[in-house]
Amino acid sequence: MPPKTITVAKFCQLSGIGKTLTYDLIKDGRLRVLKINRRTLITMESVDALLGQPSNP
Question: Which of 5, 25, 26, 46 allows an S-S link to 32, with CB 3.0 to 4.6 Å?
Answer without folding.
Answer: 46
